[in-house]
Amino acid sequence: MEMFTVKSIGKVRSDESGMRIELEKEFIPALTNLEGFGYINILWWFHQSDTEEACSKLVENSPYKDSPDQLGTFATRSPERPNPIALTCAYITDLDADNGIIGLAYIDAEDGSPVIDIKPYTPSFDRVEDPIVPDWCASWPKSVETSDDFDWSKVFNF
């Protein structure tokens, strides 16, 4: 297996003052002209699942109520995967480019999770108007904006 080196560019922070990304000082210049973008795609590391056992797991018991009983790792967003890389599309609440801080409305990462890359969300590359999904998840919200009001407790087994 070929090995790669991935460098953390910052950390996810989540506390009483909110959710945010705090960049390492050397990467602050990469925020140049991010102003104006409302959303970013954040690639981050599921550091709590960075174990040989978790990275070897290829089939999951489904966490979803109406799905097949088992799903391959690539059919899930599970943290247990060959490379524990996560992707979150997040709304930017504020941007402090001078200090390397990006305020976020929400990110499904633990406090301290390493951030490995950030890309601006652009509809021409990132949006699919008519996505094709299996029947078991076809009733889920069609956008991030409508996900807040969705009753996710009806979807998950936990």
User: Biggest sheet: strands, sense, closure?
Assistant: 6 strands, antiparallel, barrel
Structural class: mainly beta
Task: Kindly report the oligomeric state of this protein.
Answer: single chain
Q: N-to-C SSE series?
A: EEEHEEEEEHH
Could you say which overall geometry the principal axes of the C-alpha atoms support? globular
State the share of residues found in helices, binned by percent. Answer: under 10%
The unreliable regions are none
End-to-end separation: 35 Å
Q: How many DSSP H or I helices?
A: 3
Relative strand content = 25-35%
Strand order of the largest sheet: 1-2-7-6-3-8
Give the integer mean of the pLDDT values.
94
- Number of beta strands: 8
Cα-based radius of gyration, to the nearest Å: 17 Å
Question: How would you summarize what this structure contains?
Answer:
This protein is mainly beta and 158 residues long. Helix content is 8%, strand content 30%.
List keywords for this structure.
158 residues; mainly beta; six-stranded antiparallel β-barrel; globular
Explain how this protein is built.
- The structure is a single chain.
- This protein has 158 residues and is mainly β.
- The chain is built from three helices and eight strands; from the N terminus they run E-E-E-H-E-E-E-E-E-H-H.
- The protein has helices at 52-56, 123-126, 144-147, and strands at residues 10-15, 18-23, 39-45, 59-61, 70-72, 85-96, 101-104, 114-120.
- Strand 4 and strand 5 form a beta hairpin.
- It is globular.
- It starts with 9 loop residues before the first strand and ends in an 11-residue tail after the last helix.
- The relative contact order is 0.26.
